[in-house]
Amino acid sequence: MTKKEGKSPAKPQPQLQPEYVKKAKAEVETNRKETERMSVKDYDEMKEFWQAYNCNVKEAQK
Fold it and tell me: I want to staple 17 with a disulfide (CB 3.0 to 4.6 A). Which of 21, 34, 39, 58 is the partner?
């Protein structure tokens, strides 16, 4: 039997996954969150760039 057109793909059932798959997924999620987070250095560089680009912008309130 085949699936009907337009149906969503089958998702793996968590209880059937080995323990190392669960650990790997948790580690990937942690790494993804860390790489998406902007560092203070990145924020400061962006702030300096836009202040130089927009000369009449006042200093951002802290």
Answer: 21
